[in-house]
Amino acid sequence: xxxxxxxxxxxxxxxxxxxxxxxxxxxxxxxxxxxxxxxxxxxxxxxxxxxxxxxxxxxxxxxxxxxxxxxxxxxxxxxxxxxxxxxxx
Length: 89
Fold this sequence. Notes:
about 90 residues
């Protein structure tokens, strides 16, 4: 994805594994993903939340996620008021 968040210092491409899509407690549409590489304001690899309004470009890779990343919660996401879609393994 290309992420240009409102307070993001390092805007740019990120390689992510999307896991949970929903609405934040503040009412924003968000994507919980495990970032494998690319630009970031923090540590990679690691879990990140992306506000979908700031994802301006994306492309789908041919990679398959066989096993979820460490600490994946299959029952939802506590940072969301509503989970719209959660990955199933």
